[in-house]
Each structure stands twice: as C-alpha cells, then as structure tokens.
Design brief:
Elements: H1 8-11, E1 14-16, H2 20-38, E2 46-53, H3 54-57, H4 64-72, H5 82-95, E3 97-98, E4 106-107, H6 110-113, E5 114-117, E6 127-134, E7 140-150, E8 153-156, H7 157-161, H8 179-189, H9 193-201, H10 207-230, H11 245-256, H12 266-282, E9 286-288, H13 298-309, H14 318-335, H15 340-343, H16 349-363, H17 368-380, H18 398-418, H19 427-440, H20 453-456
Parallel strand pairs: 2-5
Antiparallel strand pairs: 1-9, 2-6, 3-4, 6-7, 7-8
Length: 460
C-alpha cells in the first residue's frame, strides 16, 4: 500500500487480553528491548522501566505493569502461557531477578524499577514507555523509548519520527493507500477487494500458508467465542462485573424452538457472540486483535452471525471476509488511527465495525463499491465515540459496546447491499473526519479514565 504494506496478520494478531495497546504492545516493546540488549556490546546487570501518558493512567487496570515485566522476562503475546506467566511473576517478585536466554541475570524489583509517570505524556504518542538497562553500579548503559500505537503495534522513538517502521519487502501489485485508489484498482482489474489484498499478501507468503494462517486466525476467534459462552463468574479488576454471555446464550438456546421470540432477538445473538469474546479479553484470555483487543469481539461476532444464522453462508468464504476486513483496517490505520488513546473508541469499535461491515457485505455478494459504502456507514455512526473505561478496565462500557458494534456492522452491510454503492460521503472522507475528531477530542475522553463514565460511576 504505497510503501505501507500491512499484512492481514498485522491487523489480526493472536495475542492476550485485556488490551492490545496497553498489554500486548508493552510486552512486544520489552521483547524488542531484550533483542537490542542481546546484540549490544554492554554487560547489563539490571533493568528499569517507566510508563507514561495513557499507559500510566490506566496501566494497572490493563495489566501494563505485568505485561512489561513479563516482556522483559521473555514472554511474547502470540505464545503467551498464563500459568507460566504467573509462576515467572512470582519468582521475580520473590528474588528481584529476571533470568532470560542470552543475557546474564538482571536485577529488577517491580516496586522500585517500574515507575508510573503521571505527568505529561511523552511527545510522540499518548502510549509511551522508556526501558533502560543498567550496569553493576546502577548507571544507565542503554535506553530506548517505545510507543504502543494501537493494535499491538510498537515503534521506537526513531521509527515514529521517521514516519513509522519502513516496509522493506517486495513491491505489491496493488499499492492502495486510500479507498479511492482501492476502488479504482478493483474497477480496472475487474477484481474484488479480497482479490487485491490476497495478491498483495502473496508477495510475502505462499498461497497455502496464507490460507492456513487466515483459517488459524478464525479458529482462535471462534474458540474464543465458545470459551466465553461456556464461562461464568466475576471478571477480575474489582468492579464485580458478572460474565453474562453464558446466561444469555442459554436463554437464547432455550427460546429457539418456541417460536415465541421477537424478530429483534437476532440482535441478542449478535451481541452475545461479541460479549463472549470481550469477557474473555477482560479475563486476560487469548484473543485476536481485530483490529485491537478492546474491539476484538465485533468481527468474530459478525462472522459467526453470518456462518450460523444467514442462509447460504459457507466457511469457504471466511478468508474473503477477513481479507476484505483487513484491507479496510489497513486504510484506517494508515490514514487515521486504531488507538483509543489517540482517537477514542471511534478508532477501536468504530474501525472494527467498518471492517466487519465490509467483510460481511463482500461475502454476501456486494460489489467493491457496496463494500466501501458498508464500511463508511458503519464508521460514520461511531464518529465522536469516546474511550472512558470505568476504573481503567476493558469492561464497562467496552464489553456491551462490541455487541452494539456488531449490530451496527450488520445493519450497515445490509443497507449498503440495498443500494448500488453510490453514496454522498466517501469512506476516505469519513476516515479523515475520524482522525480530525480524535485530534480535537479532549484527553479526558481518550483512554485515561479521567472523564465520562469513568468519573460518573459512584463506586470508583
């Protein structure tokens, strides 16, 4: 895409809850720092970390501190093992030492060496962190600033200043950096959005590996729904939020054969699939960024709704759905943001709804113009949505919001399919509006828990 090829596997990353930018990003940054340390000439003896901006304000609720420590201990989101993580954290707290492959034992006391800086955010992005290595005397010998820019993507200070990490891979056949370019390429080549995305992906990966990888993403999404529907209890974090997906699902199954349900009950099916995912995310379970953890339920719920409730749906089109969704997600990330700390929830659930609407429209036979229209309708009606999580947890209003995002996505796709693709507001204009709205939005409403619902709930 211009010079900014974003793979479907960059948009859909298998990871861990509760937050892609506040849990996965710091873990990835810490892993990068370890690699830098391994290749440096220095002999480190200790580690230090400081969290800034949104990472500090809602860091504890998002387990940013845990994620940073675990990243420094060698854990990575894609291969995260919860039991091993707990054991490692306990060892580090008891010994004050981190032991990782390829480096000497490193002194690290979580209470002293991990700082939450509640002052002004670092200049580059609302989610900033500084990692340091020290020598035996405690002097800093290596330091790097990282920014977690949303969806688990991480950039160093230098990469951010240079305009993001360079894409040094081979040129792609369809380098679209806007929806207008994407539609032009679809028209001139007689191709679908998924065709363009697939052709671009095949410059980096074999056809079988691409298909297997996409189906693996869907498998993790689908299993996450199933685990969420089967689990009960109270979510961690202190808000005493009850898991609701299992109870709602049981009631829906019981009503199914009674022919007494209202037509709008289908909305409850959509919502329960999304809520199942986001309850899993809130509990720190395995989820797929889609495009973020906070919005991880919208796309799986829309896809499950299509497969299980829409006549004519077939699993053979799952890759078309996800490739189409990834193309839209790439446009939003390239031209605006998918980070709640940067643009509010419009950038998370809004982006996810646009992606889901595009994917659903595509697999239901929509033209590229209708697909673009579906994405625009879904995003347009999330414009201005704030990110104000109560107590900094990805629970209220986030879990239900994913259900409503799925409902909007399905409605947007359906409306687009009723038209011929022509419409007043282009997707590019809507994405740019989202970017501007996010830039103008008060910091209180961008994942700091300093405004909105977060300050109007009595027990917080």
């Amino acid at each position: 895409m211009g010079g900014m090829f974003l793979s479907v596997f960059d948009i859909f990353k298998i990871g861990v809850g509760p937050s892609s930018s506040h849990t996965m990003g710091p873990m990835v940054a810490a892993a990068c720092f370890l690699e830098t340390l391994r290749s440096s000439p220095f002999q480190p003896a200790g580690l230090r970390a400081s969290l800034h901006g949104s990472l500090a304000f809602t860091g504890v609720g998002h387990a940013t501190d845990r994620a940073t420590i675990l990243g420094l201990a060698g854990f990575e989101p894609a291969t995260y093992d919860a039991d091993a993580a707990e054991a490692t954290l306990a060892t580090i707290r008891a010994t004050g030492v981190i032991e990782v492959d390829g480096l000497p034992p490193l002194a690290f006391d979580p209470h002293q060496d991990l700082a939450f800086d509640y002052g002004p955010a670092l200049e580059g992005h609302a989610n900033g962190m500084i990692l340091k290595a020290t020598d035996a005397q405690g002097d800093v010998i290596l330091q790097e600033t990282y920014y977690s820019v949303g969806g688990g993507f991480v950039l160093t200070e230098a990469e951010l200043a240079a305009g993001a990490a360079a894409d040094n891979g081979p040129a792609v056949p369809y380098p679209f950096a806007s929806a207008t370019e994407m539609l032009d390429m679809c028209r001139s080549g007689g191709k679908t959005v998924a065709d363009l995305k697939r052709a671009n992906e095949l410059t980096r990966i074999g056809a079988q590996a691409l298909e297997d990888g996409i189906l693996r993403v869907w498998q993790v999404m689908s299993e996450c729904i199933d685990r969420g529907l089967a689990s009960e209890g109270i979510l961690p974090g202190g808000l005493q939020v009850n898991r609701r997906a299992r109870g709602i699902h049981k009631a829906l199954l019981a009503e199914r054969g009674m022919n007494l349900t209202a037509p709008h009950t289908i909305n409850d099916w959509m919502s329960v699939y999304a809520m199942a995912v986001n309850e899993q995310n809130a509990a720190g379970g395995q989820v797929v960024t889609a495009p973020t953890n906070g919005a991880a339920g919208v796309i799986p719920a829309t896809l499950r709704y299509w497969l299980d409730h829409v006549p004519g749906a077939t699993p053979s089109k799952v890759s078309d759905f996800l490739l189409t969704a990834a193309a839209i997600g790439g446009l939003v990330k390239h031209n605006a943001s998918i980070s709640g700390a940067e643009c509010g929830c419009q950038a998370e659930v809004g982006s996810a709804a646009a992606m889901a609407a595009a994917g659903l429209c595509a697999v239901m036979g929509g033209s590229p113009e209708q697909v673009e229209n579906a994405a625009e309708i879904a995003l347009e009606h999330h414009l201005g949505m704030t990110c104000d999580p109560v107590k900094g947890l990805v629970q209220v209003p986030c879990i239900e919001r994913n259900g409503l995002g799925c409902i909007k996505a399905v409605s947007a796709a359906s409306l687009a399919l009723r038209g011929d693709g022509s419409h007043l507001v282009p997707l590019d204009a809507c994405i740019e509006t989202m970017r501007q709205t996010g830039a103008d939005m008060s910091e209180k409403y961008k994942e700091t828990s300093l405004g909105g619902l977060a300050v109007n709930i009595p027990n917080c």
